[in-house]
Amino acid sequence: MSCCFFGDRKKGHDLVHHDTRDAGGDSIASTKNFSFNELRLATNNFHQINKIGRGGFGTVYKGTLKQGKDVAVKTLAAESRQGLREFLTEIETISNVKHPNLVEIIGCCADGNNRILVYEYLENRSLDRALFGSRTSIKLEWEKRTTICLGTARGLAYLHEELVPHIVHRDIKASNILLDKDYTPKIGDFGLAKLFPDNITHISTKIAGTTGYLAPEYVLGGQLTMKADVYSFGVLILEAVSGKSSSSRIWQGDKRSLLEWSWRLYQEEKLLELVDEELDEFPEREVVRYIKTALFCTQANANRRPMMSQVIEMLSRDIQLNEKELTPPGFFEDSEGSVQSRLKISRGNTSQQSSVHITITQVTPR
Ligand SMILES: Nc1ncnc2c1ncn2[C@@H]1O[C@H](COP(=O)(O)OP(=O)(O)OP(=O)(O)O)[C@@H](O)[C@H]1O
Ligand SMILES: [Mg+2]
């Protein structure tokens, strides 16, 4: 069994198998190569109106191919302008990863200096818009939220446990969960970190922007295992239940983070207070089981977190979770714009909680 951490070339976990074929064209069998012109036409010359978002990797446009198929066109930022052969080889690797809960890569463009990825277009866009955006547009009732959590768990279990070599996503968060017209979730951006050279530019952006999802051992020591994804998935469940973003500015004062607040409510046996007020009806036992599963996923000690296949069981079956095994969560938090960040790990049992603060000054590259 082997495990691959994207972008972690120095440690020898590299996925790259050096392709000896001509990297210029049709030799990359399963991946369609688009010309820059084709994509320019598809996106109305990358028009502002077609722009649907911008993330750490680059800008995303909605496009329509000649045949009428809608696509999402992601123009990768300058840091990703690595060698043509390596780019195409890596695209080939991630294009071959297919699962109903993973976004499909349709093709790419490596024309001149341009590095562009073409994905299937998901009508309901990303989960962050559905959960935290304007509430008038999309109503996410409890059943839809369970479909989204379970489907995401299945996609992750596939990346972690079925695929060889395994893939650690490293960036599980609501904006990377795309929703099709039936709200089937599809994990996006898996493997994208691999397309970036080893530098800290992107992860620095991430740490500023999405601290709420990062497992403490990853931030502090760069220990990247699939349990870091399990941690982020746990945070995602809490967001799906509460309708609140873990990286929102509302987390201050006595509610220092979504996870910390959830843990406190657990200790006080008031877990239902976490539930999104937009939810009119919900099955209480199931909701509580979801929150407790999230707490299992976010435990400070990565070894105690379940595997994703276990998480699927915990979410989908009406079972009693063994709470004697549950230990407090670990938190990583930004100290308000400062370069330094603090890692806070809760210690103690469920009735008593103390914490340690460790100051770190450097972040391990993704
Ligand atoms: N395949 C797609 N179908 C529909 N919308 C998409 C698709 N891919 C991305 N988007 C939209 O584009 C936005 C930006 O995506 P992008 O992946 O660039 O940024 P992000 O997810 O916010 O951050 P990150 O760089 O960490 O992935 C998403 O939030 C989503 O709304
Ligand atoms: Mg994304």
List the secondary-structure elements in sequence, H or E.
EEHEEEHEEHHEEEHHHHHHEEE
The name of the CATH architecture of the largest domain is Orthogonal Bundle
End-to-end distance, in Å? 22 Å
The counted number of beta strands is 13
What would the average pLDDT be, to the nearest integer? 78
Strand content: 15-25%
CATH class of the largest domain, named: Mainly Alpha
Q: Going across the biggest sheet, name each strand in turn.
A: 2-6-7-5-4-3
Helix residue percentage: 25-40%
Q: How would you classify the helix and strand content by structural class?
A: alpha+beta
InterPro entries: CR_Ser/Thr_kinase, Kinase-like_dom_sf, Prot_kinase_dom, Protein_kinase_ATP_BS, Ser/Thr_kinase_AS
Membrane topology: Single-pass membrane protein
Protein name: Protein kinase domain-containing protein
Domain Protein kinase: 46-321
